[in-house]
Amino acid sequence: MANNAVKTDTEHFFDPKTLPLLDPALMAQIVTTAADLSVIVTADGRVKAVMVNPHHSAFGQLQSWVGQPFDDCVAEESRDKFARRLKAISAPGAKSLVVEVNHTGHTMWEFPIRYTMHWMEREQSILMLGRDMRPIAEMQQQLVMAQIALERDYEAQREMDTRYRVLMEATRDAMILLAMNTGRIVDLNAAAALMLGAPRQDLAGSSIAQEFDGRRRGEFLESLSSIASSDTVSPVELVARRSQRKLRVIPKLFRAAGERFMLCRLEAPDEVTAAISEVSDNLERLYHEGVDAIVFLDQDGLITFGNDAFMKLTDSAYLTNVRGRSLADFLVRGVVDLRVILDNARRSRHLRLYSTKLMNEFNGQISVEISATHLNDRPAPGFALVIRDASRSDLLRRPGMTTGEDGMRSVMELVGSSSLKDIVSETTDVVEKMCIQTAVDLTRNNRLAAAEMLGLSRQSLYVKLRKFGLLEKGDE
């Protein structure tokens, strides 16, 4: 039984009686191909021979190593390590050793080699069979880079999760996150738990359909999906099973990581109605009791509604006296002011603090500031204007704002002393100057924007500015 045992000791395996005699050339070929790089080093540390595996030609020409100290062929940090191994392998009875060194080439590039050192007694030399460690080093580098990338992704995920948690807790809206494949609650905030009438830990993971009276999971999820995919938002009114509160569910369907989720916002209809009613009541009181004039216009600038402050500002007795009339009837510059107000509000939705003068029923004038809003999200779009009395701050206005009034007064003085043709020509110049000055003031002296507002080229605008003396020194 002992003779049939498997032999694992290399000394018994290579029995001198059974080991065939090998040709030296064949032996050199075996040694050369057994390792990526084979080096024979003398006992004093000089390179005696270098053999490069013909199937591994990445090392280049290393025959220049022959005759040089092996220390000159390795990096500085590997020399002490090799010197210790050389001393140990030369000791009597030493077996094979392993050493890893970094070689340096003539072009200053490095490559790591792992050698097994074998002492050859008869030649008094060391046979070093080396394996190229660059593939392993590259793989280790890739693993390190992958680990760094994973850590960065983990930190980014933690950051996004923290943002999500803070947002869920900070918002006042009741939010529930559902998994569509199971119909169960993935997450919810404290406001949603309060509306449903149970702690968050009890609601997380439960079926959403069980939290409402008279609802089946399949039917409930299907109805929410159809509402979420429709163009119009129509909330579902339900009754919470635990709290018995009437709630409105507004769903939003989305997909993440290949799975479908639904974000549901819960509202209490009584609270929403109360809030809307309170806002409407406050706005109504502001409309009737506010100190600033509030006027509503249609798309053509005709007055549809006006509050008491507007009636006082224009000295109108009744709303019926102004309703249906154009706001231009109450502006000193008439249609010019009205077009500027409406066009700017229509273009950018808002117009703030437009300075002009308002004219009452008895031709009295008062300086005002007008803010306009375009109400276009309704079947009959229109405009809402807030008109503020600015007569107290009239002295702070720029002098250029009164030039149009002076021109109009000079035109009126021509009646009776000039022909109609001359009066019309002078009136055209006055109106043109007023329009240009208004556009320049409205755009805060932005000549390009003023030219676009008036439908002129920039060169034509500069010509007209020179004509009416509206260019300051250094502007030309």
What does this structure look like?
- A hairpin with a 4-residue loop joins strand 11 and strand 12.
- Helix 11 runs antiparallel to helix 12 and helix 12 packs across helix 13.
- A five-stranded antiparallel sheet has the order 2-1-5-4-3, sandwiched between helices. Strands 7-6-10-9-8 form a five-stranded antiparallel sheet. Strands 12-11-15-14-13 form a five-stranded antiparallel sheet.
- Helices cover 38% and strands 24% of the residues.
- The protein has 476 residues and is of the alpha+beta class.
- The chain has four domains: 119 residues, Beta-Lactamase (2-Layer Sandwich); 102 residues, PAS domain (Beta-Lactamase, 2-Layer Sandwich), CATH 3.30.450; 107 residues, PAS domain (Beta-Lactamase, 2-Layer Sandwich); 64 residues, Arc Repressor Mutant, subunit A (Orthogonal Bundle).
- The longest helix is centred in the N-terminal third of the chain and has 37 residues.
